[in-house]
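User: Sequence in, structure out. Go.
Assistant: Echoing your sequence, followed by the structure tokens.
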Amino acid sequence: MGLLRLLGLRTAGKQAAPAPVQAPPTDWKAQGNAALAESDLARAADCYRHAADVDPRDAAAWLNLGYCLLETGDPAAAGAALDRSLALAEVGASYLHDVHYLRGRALAAQGQWALARRAFELALAARADFTEARLGLANAFLELGELEAALDWAGKAQEAGLPAAMLQAQAAARLKRFDEALSVLDTVLEQHPGNAAAWHTKGTVLLEAGKSAAALEAFQRSVTLAGPWPEILVNMATALNALGRPEEALSHARQALQLDPSNGFSMYMTGLTLLETLRVDEAVDFCGKAFALAPKGPDLEWNHAIANLLAGRLQAGWPAYECRLDAPGGYYQKRPLPANVRVWRGESLQGRSILLEAEQGLGDTLMMLRYLPMVAERAAKVWVRVQPSLLELARQVAPGCQFVADEALPLPDFVCPLMSLPRAFATTLETIPGAVPYLHADPARVAAWRSELASLPGRLKIGVAWSGNPVHANDARRSMPLGALRQLAGDEDAFVTVQPNIPEPALAEWPQLHRCGDRVRDFSDTAALFDSLDLVISVDTSVVHLAGALGRPVFLLLAHYPDWRWMVGRADSPWYPSLKLYRQPAPGDWAAVVAQVRRDLSTFEPR
């Protein structure tokens, strides 16, 4: 799905206006108090500002001015006024808890959560039974990712009722304690069935728990109660996308954008759903316009990258694809580097050293190994860190490179994540290093597999893989049921598993499938198995990259919205010339894909 974070309820922890502090009375302060009593915050702020002008050392005037500015949406100015009040307040003043608490709110509104946490702690030190400060502290811990502390402080603020319960639910959900979060929310909804925010929060918890249909129902209840607003429409679009209803998702995302044209989350989801519905050129255009309205955050930049890469505009896509390096919780976690170590962007490597680091999945590493000889030609020293399961294969690509483990990382002149190599080499469709094979199987292992498979009947010996790593963010779409792939079965060909460690019950739908995967110990074994087969048929997982790097024939079965490297509207791949691509005509339609593969198998000739 990319890099989007779910939108949850933010509990601000507001309180009533602080009781006016009766310092020596003045006309301006009295007028401010009167305006505040009438909820005329703008007039009250103006009066308190005049009072502070008359007596700049009046801590109470600065306090009430800060409150008014905070409530009228100017947290920066509010914080400045409250800082003045705090600096002027006498030790032990009766209103210190209000100053600290309001400072906490002002800091929180500006995203300064660590400072806000300290302000809320000071408010509680000044008044231990300050419920609103407990809520504020719980929210600060939640935003800072200190979830156990957030859960604890939300519990201490139980007398606040609904806001505390909502914070409890959010903290529990982020701890992946979904049952606990939903239990809290169900209790809330029994008491407050008409609370739209509680339904929205329940929907976000269900969505994060992978229960998209139930989440959508909760969101719809919330909209029925309170009408639509951008955040809930974006979350509804997320649920609809997960349910394979991208056109409806696009409609909701566009509605969110109409309500708030500059909302970054709405922009992200609109761009994503344009991609999901394969409106790639429209997505490229939309992302360009979005950057004029919102900061270039990693979510928007990610859509921009994927849109260009899907369209085959690689030179425009690679720079935007670097956004993954800065995204919180993203694919690649950057290590702190000494000042003299730089990320390589294609500069001269003559007389210099470089460390190439694996990132993302095994398939991505296999795909990028093709660049290793190109780097080795340019640098005086090349270190490479790859996943241990790929080490034996990777060594054969560039014998001059030195492979290192995490505990022995060197201090080079440059570092480069593997997926940044296409940018460093300014790779275009015409200059993709697509010569295959660049990996080779061990002849002895190939001979052993051929001996085993020789007794299988049929014209073709075909390896199949129908699912990938279940923790992959897009695995539900890219993987397919074994029963759907079984429609390929017949008397003409022999089919074997190339997936390791498949439980026996999972193979019940295709009992004739020859089990090879159980004896695959590593990728070198898999490579030898592929060299013993006539064809590999697989969904989009690492075995495709391995077979493609070996130059073996592959039928790649793609979801309607494919990974960026397979682009759109093509049946071939410039990355792997031996691949033939089969695309879902509609989301979830594996039957049409399998039917086309079955027709092509009848004319496929082994080489």
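User: And one key feature?
Assistant: Strands lie at 342-343, 353-357, 381-385, 402-403, 414-417, 461-465, 494-497, 535-539, 554-558, 579-583.
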